[in-house]
Amino acid sequence: xxxxxxxxxxxxxxxxGLTAGLFAAFAYAVMPGxxxxxxxxxxxxxxxxxxxxxxxxxxxxxxxxxxxxxxxAALHLGAGRRAVLPWIVAGLVSYLVVLGVTAxxxxxxxxxxxxxxxxxxxxxxxxxERPWVRGNVVRAVASTGAFGLLAWALVEVGxxxx
Length: 162
Prior knowledge:
The chain is mainly α. Helix content is 85%, strand content 0%.
């Protein structure tokens, strides 16, 4: 059981860190780079990115972060393991912010961009870019926070008596 507890926490930390890295890279590189392009390029690039990101690797990281964190929390409920639980729960809450912002802000904007067809690229960009970037910055900060909290939980696991 000890191996499963630690492995689930490690998997939660790893998948959360990979997700945080993705959102952070969009915040500090991808969107600023696309922000320097013309309207049509930004719209087309974001459509292609949104189509391409729906793959098994993304699903493993994005969904795995939630599933592994829930599993790690459940496995740390027992006596003697609860010292780690607040860090895991805080990481989970932070990651739930990521999921909420994704569902409420970013995915609806992605879907609207996909449905817009050949509408005016300047109008599509005006409706999409600023709110999507703001939502993504929130996701980057929240997922990075979740990663840090889960990493600290791993440190705390190492301090527990065997």
